[in-house]
């Protein structure tokens, strides 16, 4: 991997909230303390788009680097293949709102940028700030200033400055980092929670989808076990989950049996003169 002319690590910084969001600028400034930062980020908000990928994107120069008319995954590919090909690490964030729980990982544009980078064999980190829901103030009206992201970017700067030399990415593809809203009380290495609590309620011609995990974080009723990302954040610690990008596979004897019987079953159907599946 390359380094900048100054011999510092070069960070490709992206996000899904948009290049002009306060969390992005806060993280840009924090990473600039420990290396060279090149912004390759969506020109506008592309939250919750997962790994949606385009075939062509427009790019314009921005004071921080490049603004891309595309998704976070677009930014990772365009950045690593064209705009910042010698990046030592891709950092995505700082996202307004936590990305915690196994079910969230595939939805998040922030996390998806880190996943995309991992397929290029470039170390990556997704960084998010938990913004409490269910209070008197709508969470969308919180975290509007760069200073609000202080805790999250402090953790991100610490990890960006140390993980490459520490050999962290010899055993993991990317880190998913989530910081609590209040000042953190330490850092914990975690695994994604598997608790899932989505509801869907029909209301006339529409169906309202609601993720109850955020409400349960606020009222303390979420049954996350020790060692999970959501439990750590709920208790005021920075959560760091070391993750791998490819989906894992598990040996399954029942499937082995079905595969073994496939040719025989199809042959019998053909003998009966029917098409497979009929």
Structure description:
Helices cover 31% and strands 22% of the residues. It is of the alpha/beta class. It has two domains: 10-196 and 222-243, Survival protein SurE-like phosphatase/nucleotidase (Stationary-phase Survival Protein Sure Homolog, Chain: A), CATH 3.40.1210; 251-278, no CATH class. The strands form two sheets. A nine-stranded mixed beta sheet has the order 3-4-2-1-5-6-7-11-8, with helices on both faces. Strands 9-10 form a two-stranded antiparallel ribbon. Helix 1 packs across helix 5 and helix 2 (72-83) packs parallel to helix 4. The model has no long low-confidence stretch (mean pLDDT 92).
Can you tag this structure with a few keywords?
Stationary-phase Survival Protein Sure Homolog, Chain: A, nine-stranded mixed sheet, 278 residues, 5'-nucleotidase activity, two-stranded antiparallel sheet, metal ion binding, alpha/beta
């Amino acid at each position: 991997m390359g380094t900048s002319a100054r011999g510092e690590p070069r960070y490709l910084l992206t996000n899904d909230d948009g290049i002009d969001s306060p969390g992005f600028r806060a993280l840009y400034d924090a990473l600039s303390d420990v290396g060279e930062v090149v912004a390759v980020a969506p020109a506008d908000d592309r939250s919750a788009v997962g790994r949606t990928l385009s075939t062509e994107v427009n790019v314009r120069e921005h004071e921080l680097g490049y603004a891309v008319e595309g998704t976070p995954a677009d930014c990772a590919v365009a950045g690593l293949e064209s705009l910042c090909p010698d990046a030592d690490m891709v950092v995505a964030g700082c996202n307004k709102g936590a990305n915690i729980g196994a079910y969230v990982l595939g939805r998040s544009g922030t996390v998806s940028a880190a996943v995309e980078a991992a397929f290029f064999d470039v170390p990556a980190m997704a960084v998010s700030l938990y913004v409490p829901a269910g209070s008197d103030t709508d969470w969308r009206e919180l975290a509007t200033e760069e200073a609000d992201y202080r805790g999250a970017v402090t953790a991100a700067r610490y990890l960006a400055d140390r993980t490459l030399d520490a050999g962290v990415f010899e055993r993991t593809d990317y880190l998913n980092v989530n910081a609590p809203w209040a000042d953190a009380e330490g850092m914990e290495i975690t695994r994604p929670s598997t608790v899932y609590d989505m509801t869907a309620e029909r209301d006339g011609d529409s169906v309202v989808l609601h993720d109850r995990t955020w409400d349960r974080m606020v009222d303390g009723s979420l049954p996350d076990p020790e060692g999970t990302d959501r439990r750590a954040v709920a208790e005021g610690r920075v959560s760091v989950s070391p993750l791998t990008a490819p989906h894992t596979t598990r040996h399954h004897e029942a499937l082995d049996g079905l595969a073994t019987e496939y040719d025989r079953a199809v042959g019998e159907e053909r003998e009966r003169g029917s098409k497979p599946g009929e």
